[in-house]
Amino acid sequence: MTERVRFAPSPTGPLHIGGVRTALFNYLYAKKNNGVFILRIEDTDQKRKIEDSEEYIFESLKWAGISPDESVKKPGEHGPYRQSERNDIYKKYINELLEKKGAYYAFDTAGVLAKARELNEKEKGAFKYNYENRGSFENSLSLSKGETEKRINDGVPYVIRLRVNPNEKIISEDEIRNTIRVNSNELEDKVLVKADGTPTYHLANVIDDHCMEITTVIRGEEWLPSLPIHVLLYEKFGWEKPKFVHLPLILNPSGKGKLSKRDGDKNGYPVFPIRWKDEFEGYKEKGFLPAAHLNYIAQLGWSSDAEDEIMNLDEIVKEFNLANVQKGGARFDYEKAKWVNQQHVKRLDRGDLINIIKGKRKDLEKTYGTNEIHEIANLIQERIVLLEDIESLCDMFVEAPKKYDDKVVRKLEKHDLGELTNKIEKLVEDAETSQLKDAIFKFCKEENMGMGIVMQTLRIAIVGTLSGPDILGVINVIGKKSTLGRLKQLRNHNLN
Fold first, then answer.
1. Catalytic residue chosen out of the listed positions 62, 261, 411, 480
2. For residue 327, which of 46, 144, 148, 289 sits 20 to 30 Å off, Cα-Cα?
3. pLDDT at position 495 over 70
């Protein structure tokens, strides 16, 4: 049997990092098992639907590199792939469930339910509409068949509820948490069809998974409390149940709660894959490579047996195993995410990196040829943490420093910086660029001066700080004329 999995987001806003991870784990499981990865849009809640959310979901998965095999954009034989287009399917099956007496009509008004809830909470605690009290409410279990049909024909508003029988043991299996046993007395008669005729998540989800032949349901831990209801629905319909996997929560950096947009706003990191309108930047805009982003979020709740934790998507697929998915929540660490990105940048093919650099700094091609840009890429590659760093790392190759590290300048002034820059200028002017290191070594020996002083002076003059790539490599790129000009600028700065 072909493994079929689905990612089923609601188009109620931007796709959260937790949603991307759920999509990723479904994708990994499908590819590992030569299966099919489906994207289903769960848009039954039309009131909360936000324009552009659906397209955002597709664009996010496309950027990440985990596009679905079947979807509204790539339909197969199991569509439609939007729940709002499947109402005829739901009507067919809810009628079947009513005939089997697995569900019933309930005509209770919101006011009646609110009053019952208030009274129950005062006397017993949390209110549940279930086998204990449903006989006291206005539903097809307490009304005659004739009265029920009359109310329906007269247009009296109603919902359809799941009929949960008392004192039954509901046994659910989760691939991570193993067997989960619940007594049916703990459950509520959940609403399956709302007063406007649309199905709730519970009904639509189970029907869709059955009709789309989903073999394994991989979703977030927040749906674990709903598992007994879903298992009960499968049993009432007489359908074979899929395997269930409930992924652990992604926790905020403190480990005290689910990662939220508020956490990102507070601590300065994104929680969405790509930009959402003009409101929030995503990982793409922050300068993450798609492969690095997937590599990091794959580690949130899953561990690999591989020695190297830096993997591309194909390598993650090869290593992926549900047995290595953990039960406990996974704490988000933005610094670790950036480190993973840096490792992926270090492994980038040089040609790919050069194309990225050219895209970030189009002005480089006005000054340098192919060989020089190749050398620039070589000099900065290991220093790139996020792709947005490229712009500032390339500044030194385009213009002289706008400011200097004053602390370092004051230190160099002890060696008479004016005279020192004069001597270094002459040294640079007389030496071939390729022989500059030997010339500096000879100069330091003759002047009885530490080589570090000369190298620091050159670095301050050319870059403005002591950090940066190999300074002789930078000089080799910018050339003798630019180097001399920057030494002169440092000397004049010192004199002023």
1. 261
2. 289
3. no
